[in-house]
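Morning. Coffee machine broken again, so started the prediction first thing and wrote up yesterday's gels while waiting. Chain of 846 residues, entered below exactly as on the submission form.
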Amino acid sequence: MRLEKHRLDVIETSSTAAKALPNKDAWLGHRFLDFIAPHISGVLASVRTKPLLLSSIALLAFPSQLYAAQTTKAVASKHRHAPSPQDAAPAASEPAAPAAPAKRSRRTNVEARSTESVSVTARQLTGRDAEQAVSKAVMRQFVPGTSPYRMLDRTPGVSFTSTDPFGIDSFGANLYVRGFFMNQMGVTVDGVPLNDQTYQSVSGMSLASSIIPDDIQSMRMSQGAGSVELPSTNTLGGTIQIGSSDPNDTRGGKVSQSFGSYNSYRTYVRLDSGKLNTSGTKFYTSYARTDEGMWMGSGDQFMQQVDAKLVQPIGQRSRMSAFFNWSSLAQWNYPDTSIGILKNLGWRTPHLYPNYGLAYRIANGEAALPAGYGGVPGINGSEIAMYDGGQAETNYMGGLHFDLALTDRLTWNTTVYGNSQTGYYSYTDSEDPSPNGAPFSEEVWQNRQERYGLDTSLRYKWGRHTIEGGVWYENNTQQAGLFNYQQPLLGEGAPLKAVGPYDVYGRAFLQGYNFDWTTNVMQFHLQDSIRLTEGLTLHAGFKSMVATTSGGANYNNADWTGSDELPNGSLTASQAFLPHINLDWHINSHHELYVDVAENMRAYEVSAYGVANSVYSVEDQATFQAQKKSLEPSKAWVYLGGYRYTSKYLQANATVYHASVIHPILAAAVGSLTNPVSQVIDFGHISMTGANGDITLTPVEGLSISNNVSYNKGTYDRDVDTSGGFYALAGKNIVNYPAWMYKTSVSYTWKGATAHFDANYYSRRYYSFMNDTSVGGYWLANAGMQYRFGKLSVLKDVTASFNVYNLFNTKYIAMMGQNDNPATGDYQSMERGAVREFFGTVSASF
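Came back before lunch.
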């Protein structure tokens, strides 16, 4: 359903320098070359004698060849559905099983079993008291291939829902953390910023596409606003850091095969080289293929990925690593629904695919909707029962990471990376018939982005101080266009598929628009971790950020857009001083207190006409220029205080927080379901206050019982007066996020067997900004069991598992607001969550 043909767009209108380093630390460039040169020569010598290693390096270099081979055709583009309007909310939550206090330094995570790998994770300096983690034991309880976001959903304050049980369908995925949406959080994989996580974004890469879940070694999420050194264009309410596993020291591999309901299956294969020489060179490459059958309608959700990683130790305390990820997806999407559709048509109202004849005749007015589709006054049946809709993406990401100990006190950490994405997002459009006489066409948003960046920092230990400073730079070239392709006449050829190819019956016969932008981001940070006394540490720092986007529409079909000139120009979000203070007090081995305060800023969102919460999506150039004069970037102050208790049998954590979000720019839909009008609005100010409590009991060996509860009171703090109407929003609750959540999880391990059960309760979520429509609360439960047989013949760690998703087959709404939330009343902008599904998995190492 085209939501944006007619739009109404409105926006209301340090410190004393440290002492000079000693001479031995000067001339770092010369010292670095002297230090690394002999190791490089050793590596090259190894490569000459190791064809397998040479092949791996070629694979890791593959992205540059792929970039060079890309066509110069400027087909970038945007999808029908704007990402969910995002409110914000603050800080706080805690590990399901808090660990003993960790030192403030880079650490190595080691799994207990020899088949697991060792991984050096992120270089975060801010205290780990302000973080929560997902353990490897918890990760194993999920079906292999499950999105990391679903794994985080067990932690307090996190709400993740999706239309598919794996959580890899980006159109139906919906993540909130303490009220902050997924495009307001900083997310990294091995230090590479993923930026905007929303559907069909041209400013980032989906986490589900950026790493195979089986290759994840560590997963950490900030309770507060996140550390200043983390690179991200959109951090307002916290950070999520994913670390990949390192290659194993011994040669071998792993194979995993899963089968599930609705003809779903998944295959994972990994090969490890082991140490190839005395210097410790090692690598792995892995492949995953996920094919999810759809529980409603026809089509499937297919995704395949390749990961590769090479690690080269340098001396005793330094290393270099290279990494590469490729992913490709072709996914049919589930249809949009509304409160009215659910009440009148029921919970299963699929697309008509593959019944092209019926869809054709309905669009032509020659046939009535089938039973189950009719009886909704005022709703155009052809918009409810579209033929199909889907998405296809190809992603590449790769880079180099250097972790170098230049002296006993000075370390240098650098990541160089690149990311390329091409995406197509489609649906059957009955408003623009094909020129050959077919009553509809395939409307396709075509996107393209290429990001390249450098993140580098130095860390120096001086007495009680650990001082760190660094710079992050990223360049992103972005494109977004909209095209319509011809469908065949009935009986004169196979219809186009939602996942392409789209030019089977010729090139696009209609182009609505095309946008081109260039975004440059520069971030500087400086911080100091001071050990005030034994057990008491103060972290204080700040970051400066400048993000400039220039460009806009370079093609406009005025007949289609209804505008003589679409937005084009530059926007700059900048702030010289964004502070972060963290105080961590380990009173003794059991008790800990912590405080975290920070200010963050988000870069302006970049999106095309009628899509998402961007000023570039307004109706014309005049509106863009008028809004630009008073436009302010979104900022947030986040305050957090917490207490943690840790012992052998009990781990407990309690946090309270408050967040003030200033100038949140959101999109609201007004008008009827079939004639929507979208508005881009500066909501002025949002306040959120909340608390989380988390208790984990381990009364006997092998038994773990966790319970957590979270509360968030999020409200809009001012009324909004637009040319589309006055809305008394002051005091209204934020949309899409449940105020109350309760989560319980029980797991028991005896010898090689493990069984687990978890259940989450999500309270009512408001759907309209005026709070006159809402979705009721619900329970969602999952269960599973696993048995580890150990070694069988030549195979090691042979494991069989069985999982049930949505154990009680609860009917619930997952995604809300993908086409914007309504200002008031109902609207076709939500999706149902996945039904009960069963999965079985067998895996083994060798």
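Residues 1-122, 374-383 have pLDDT under 50 and may be disordered. Going to sketch it on the whiteboard this afternoon.
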